[in-house]
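User: ok so my PI wants both of these folded by tonight, can you help

Assistant: No problem, let's get them done. Here's the first:
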Amino acid sequence: MQHRIIVLGAGYTGAIAAGRLARRLHRDEVAITLVNAEPDFVERVRMHQLAAGQDLTPRPLSEMFEGTGVELRIAEVTGVDADRRTVTVTEKDGVTGQLPYDTLVYALGSGWNDQGVTGTAEHAYEIASRPGALRLRERLAGLAAGQPVVVVGAGLTGVEAATELAEARPDLAVALVARGGLGDWLSDKGRAHLRKVVGELGITVHENTAVTEVRADRVTIADGGTVPAAVTVWTTGFAVHPIARATTLETTGTGQIVVDRTMRSLSHPDVYVVGDAAMAMGPGDKPLRMSCASGTPAAWQAADAVAARLTGGKLPHAPVRYFNQCISLGRKEGLIQYVTADDRAVDATLTGRLAALYKELVCKGAVWGVANPTLGLPARRRHVVGETAGTGTTVGAAV
């Protein structure tokens, strides 16, 4: 019988893991099923562009995985029983079913995090998902000149959203609310460039400011003052999909699944976790942050570890590390902040038009990586060894 591998989620990490597994293992010995709620691959790193009115290239998953041997299942994951090794899914027509697995790759990712701030869920807009970005796009299209748009959160997502909107709609009054200093995680050169671009785009910045309430026409800040907002865009971080917390998998207080260096669950060795859902340690014993920069190599690591354990091969030991932070500042400007292995800014940066082109290449490369999970290297499919399917036994469980 075939060893059943189910991959949950076809974002960057899930799609890469599924494709890489298909290139590592013989099709007649494994059955790889990729479950995703939407039929298209979503370029999450471009959601600020979509919200600003730009049209993105459709990328049907059926075309991306054609001929790979990966079975695509368009359904919503509604439950995981990690002890019985089953996944509950609900199809578009409302029919519910269960999928048994021998190995599970959990890549359900994350969504926006309203941080429990009053009024956020009711009045704010998010760009962590395509539906959210499209909803914001529609609302922005209806705004008249001069109306205020407030972006709350000045991390990578917030900075990209504010600059994209300000460039696309110079007729709007765009403001950015930062809990700390603007770009305080960047190098001196990086901060200076960010401030320069933000100033040129006419963005008003409220630094060292916490938002305590969101209303339909304004946000309230910690000192009791208000900032007018016809539209509030909330970008204060991500919250992982809630399903993991409801399972018997070992999770953190944030709901992330605790894994080892091969992205394998510490509590359930037949489960691997990639992307934002994983609590994995990186260089310097620091948790990897939720990002494409760490998610993609983690997906390679997990897929190669699954393949190695199934085929009796050598486990991968390449560390997941950081090299740079790529920030788009509209379509004409960018900032590439080079960092240490554990994600601390160094003096070196790339700025301006060249940085914008660099970031565009990174975005295109991320999509290419989904369709080419082994980075163009020849496929090296290996044979599965031992009892693998239908027996409840995971090959190499003791490795």
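One down. Here's the second:
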Amino acid sequence: MNHTTEEIKSLMIEKLDNRINPEDEQLLQQLINEQADVQEMWTEMQALFIAGPGKELMERLDTRQEWQIFNATLRSERRRKLFTYGGLAAGAAAAAIAVLLYINISSPINKTTPPLVAVTQAPKGILLQIDNGKTIDLSAQGNTAITAGSASLHNNGKVLTLQGGNSTQWTRITVPTGMDYQVKLPDNSILWLNAATTAHFPMSFSGNTREIEIHGEAYLQVAKDENRPFIVHLPGADVQVLGTAFNINSYDSGVVKVALVEGSVNMRAGGETVGLKPGYQGHAANGLPIKVAPFDAQQVLSWMKGQYMFSNTPVHEIVQSLQRWYDVEVVLDNTTVGNKRFTGVINKQKKLQDFLDDLTETAEISYYFKDQVLHLR
């Protein structure tokens, strides 16, 4: 079996950090013994990261996130053709040296600053867009008060609280892949927005209804107000409530799922209105009649605990969750792999590779990375 430079490099990094499993270590040793260019690369990597200036880097990379940043930087260097056929060892050394120079590892460490403070590209943040054109990165603000016209907003990095303002002033929050965020609306209703989700709502509610728009996935705890129904506008459907808790999912184009946890809601789609009871989910797809069936709360709501639970789920559906949570592009090399099924859990606190290893063991699927794109085959 041929192994890409990226795969070999990843094995070496895991071995240097003592994170390699026995099977991979055996494979790496075999490649080193049999291929001169791999042996040369291994020698140079050892010199850089065990006895050379990279030793200090190894000691500083003591969190999973920092290792991911390091690996991502190496991948970006590879895209600049530092890794080329016939120049494997030189490419690895060049990539490693580039990282070391980039973070100034050769100079004394300033203990007052966190390691790897710079990345080749700033991470995407949770964006608050106010109708007057102002855009605020909530993930970069920390614990701050924000003034937007007559509205007062408070952000603690995880929750945005709205007070004041007027009903004609709308705002939009966009949560990127790999993140989630909560919003406390003026009526004390709570929105918990999953990754790759957008919510559009007014700074305050007036009139006979409370109306918002959501595209993506969210869990809502709606404050009870018998005089003002709460209406959620989704792509192709609406949900009307008085006071309740439910999950909505409109990730898939033309498909809306509403799972009721407590209270009661009316789901409207395609000119049809269906009432839901706790423990039941309404499913509207491409103009077809709404289907109502019981749902597994542990599975549907698991994302709020940093997990995605799958039960005999097709791989082509799992791919969407991987892309949203790990911000990685995924390609299915053939249609067969997409139809295979998997039962298991994605844990947001664990590395992507941990899940992929589970996937390969139980679903008979292999994977590889090429130019920062994850391929399943």
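The chain is about 30% helix and 35% strand. Residues 208 and 228 are 5 Å apart (CA to CA). Good luck tonight!
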